[in-house]
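Final paragraph of the annual report: two paired records, presented back to back.
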Amino acid sequence: MIPILLKSILCSGILLGIYHVFLSNEKLLKFNRWYLIFSIVFSYTIPWISNPWNQEVIDTQPVLIIGNPTLQTVKANISQNWILENVSNIILVIYLVVTVFLLLKAIILLTKISQIKGKRFVYDNATICLNNDIKGSFSFWNTIYLNQTNWENGKIDERIILHEKAHLQQKHSWDILFVELVKIISWFNPFVFAYKKAIINNHEFLADNFVLHKTPQIQSYQHLILNEIENNLQLTHSFNFNNTKKRFIMMTTAKTKWTYAKQFAIVPVITLLFMGFSQQTKAQEKQKTKPKSTTKTMVDGKKNSLSKQLIKNNTSVVKKKTEKTAETENIIKEEVLQKLDTVNVKMVVDYDLSDNFKEYSMEIRKKLSSNFNTSAIEPLEKGIFKANLSFVLDTKGNITFIKVDGTNESFNNEAKKSLLKLTENGSLQPITKNGIPINYRFSMPITIQFD
């Protein structure tokens, strides 16, 4: 999920940058409106779309290795490490809190607008609402809101009505609600806020252009805007929008021969982004049966790169046993060499930590390997995938605090499923020390290679 979100954020940032560099200063008002909306939709959907032009059949003969578990007494550590064990849950809670806050804020603003009372009537095919609490003028959905006193005294210029009417006819409120919803559910994307500002700017350019098409008196219209500057509710379009400098520049901007050419130049950019951010479609030729030995690390008598990594890791483990006697070290080294020769991972641990850890951990790894369904993994590409599986085996033999860290989601899910299958027929035998059950944390690396 995180890679998909990062792709969406990066893609939205690239498209927004293209808009500001090449399009924002051009008088492509309608095109720019739909470009901004399209950019948001494209950025949030393209990471989920498979690329049909890039397919590769992978003949997978996976090599699975469940590495040496590390052992740790947890007891009080279960509560002390609660934050580390529940990072994903904490992030989810923070996300939901901020999302709910922004949602409630938007609902309050919409409710505030809907509760504006006043005299309503239809004027020039537009619904007008008059209220003395309204300082300036603004529009939302299908209604134009004006100050009642100014209206009755004839102080509201006809061009103000035209400006707000343009917002209604062109359905600009739909754009505002859409980008507001995107902001609520993806507030962590900093570019969303810039998109909202750019969309509102574009709406004002469109409304100004509508007015000047009816009454082509630019200087007079600019003075009218300066005289009407007020602050209004969010989610609405106000005639006295305060970004006057850009609006004035856009009023006098003329189209050039390059203006329309820039529209077509966007097409190859979108194509490149599609190729770069869409999911690569790779067909996996899955095995009909599970491999006989999922801990196999040698093919045709030759050690592969994964075996070499195990040699390196376990050699470092042996070197760290400096406090052991020479006789004990020789025994441990002999076990490591035997493991590499028989291609079957053996335990190299401090046996004094637990009465039955050596035998029991080997049994867990054996069952975990047997439960592992390699055909359920979607490698997407050839190579080595790694994950670290950690869990706590409590004094009652229950598996808790399961956590899988890896780059391949299907690999992570299968590792968790394989672990949970261990308790399908009841709880496990707990680890004991001096005959007393204790809480222990297992942490074991799992590696799979697709050639």
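The closing record of the year follows.
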Amino acid sequence: MENFNGVLITFDLKIEKLKIYFDYKNPKYSYTIIRNYLTSLGFEKSNDSDYISNERNLI
């Protein structure tokens, strides 16, 4: 990513902690919520939990 001027977000969530706040049967749904939010801001999903945007002023 030489000379990359955009925004890259990468993260990982602790599934055991998510069970406290989300349905314990499907705690990974939180990844869907985050994906929907980030794509609504113009990010594109790159890898597992990596999102990238070439825009500099996203918010």
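The chain is about 30% helix and 20% strand. This concludes the annual technical report; the extension proposal builds directly on these records.
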